[in-house]
């Protein structure tokens, strides 16, 4: 029978988010650009989809590497 190994990594959630943000700032492993009012922001598709149903639905229907947000989606 297979054994299960369980380990605890303190502050894992914060550490992984900090690492992903640092990668994004360096342009590493970014797989989508979000364009807002002509400005492009590199991002991780998985992070956007995990944190937003809007992006999750968008990425399920499109595999484009560039996403331009419509003016209606922007705050006034």
Automatic annotation (TrEMBL):
InterPro entries: BTB/POZ_dom, SKP1/BTB/POZ_sf, ZnFinger_BTB_dom_contain. Residues 30-76 form the BTB domain. It comes from the Eukaryota. Signal peptide: none annotated. GO terms for molecular function: DNA-binding transcription factor activity, RNA polymerase II-specific; RNA polymerase II cis-regulatory region sequence-specific DNA binding. This is BTB domain-containing protein. It comes from Cairina moschata.
């Amino acid at each position: 029978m297979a054994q299960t190994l369980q380990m605890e990594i303190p502050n894992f959630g914060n550490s992984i988010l900090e690492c992903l943000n640092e990668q994004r700032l360096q342009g590493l492993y970014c797989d989508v650009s979000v364009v807002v009012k002509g400005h492009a922001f590199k991002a991780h598709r998985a992070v956007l989809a995990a944190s937003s149903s809007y992006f999750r639905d968008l990425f399920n229907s499109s595999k484009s590497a560039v996403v331009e947000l419509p003016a209606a989606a922007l705050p006034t």
